[in-house]
Amino acid sequence: MDEAGIDVQVLSHGSPATQLLSADVSVPLARRVNDRLHAAVGAFPDRLAAFAVLPTADPRAAADELERTVDRLGFKGAMIHGMANGLFLDHKRFWPIFERAERLDVPVYLHPSVPHPAVMEAYYKDYAEAFPTVVRAAWGFTVETATQALRLVLSGIFDVHPSLKIILGHLGETLPFLMWRIDQALARPGQKTIRFREVFTNGFYVTTSGFFSTPALACCLAELGADRVLFAVDYPYIDNRSGAAWLREAPIAEETRVKIAGANTQRLLRL
By the 8 A CB rule, do 246 and 221 touch? Predict the structure, then answer.
């Protein structure tokens, strides 16, 4: 962090965290690992912050754990990794988590995990051995996480919880680039009315995590505006220094750079 000029870094647990565990295991485990993360942050409280891991197998316990970590441990939100035991997060059983996040005014970060086994078999098995990242960072992560976000919008959860805040990494998992086409296609006759662009641009934030592309950044700024883009690195998978150097040199207005580098995150996470 010192070498890269990063003042504060928000820590989280790795994928798939507790999303593939049963309730009897994940509920006590989440509490223990969140306490451990809190202790790590406490060693450098001016430099580190944290997102909670949640035991999604028991959504009400997950909501309670989110509240505990925010109110008692000072966490800044939560991170959920992919599907929860084979279920997409738009399923209404998970809505108590999002209701609590809205009430606490903290975001939920949707982080990728590997695709559903049926998708792995149908889409990737021919190339997974030779190109293992094709099911992860190269493609599979993006498809799964973009689908999670799309389904949340279609589910109507933002009608019920209009102040809910969702964060997507990797500059929005391609959704900003596809915004016009998604919005136009969903507005065609013969289907339920949905205001995809309006919901997405009001409810979602995107980070630069692991995606230091100037053209992709320009797309996100054009579609979402400078207030919705947050700097992130994806350390240790990506080196802190490369991300920080890219943002310093990006051909954007200095006011925009200041927002992305920290002001937006300070506001969203109340750092």
Answer: no
Tell me whether residue 2 is in a domain.
no
CA distances for 88 relative to 84, 133, 198, angstroms: 6, 22, 22
Distance CA(109)–CA(206), nearest Å, equals 9
Domain count along the chain: 1
Cis upstream peptide for 215 (omega within 30°) = no
Q: Which residues are catalytic?
A: 234
The long-range contacts involving 155-163, CB below 8 angstroms and separated by at least 24 positions, are 155/90, 155/92, 157/90, 157/95, 157/98, 158/199, 158/202, 158/203, 160/95, 160/99, 161/95, 161/98, 161/99, 161/102, 162/202, 162/203, 163/102, 163/105
Average pLDDT over residues 38-60: 98
Q: Kindly state whether residue 22 falls inside one of the protein's structural domains.
A: yes
27 in a structural domain: yes
Residue range 133-160: average pLDDT?
A: 97
Look up the domain containing 156 and give its range: 9-269
Q: Report the predicted TM-score, pTM, of the whole model to 2 decimal places.
A: 0.97
Could you tell me the CATH number of the domain that includes residue 251?
A: 3.20.20.140
Q: Which amino acid is at 154?
A: L
Counting every residue written for the chain, the total comes to 271
Per-residue pLDDT band for 256 (boundaries 50, 70, 90) equals very high
CA torsion sign, 169 to 171 to 177 to 183?
A: positive
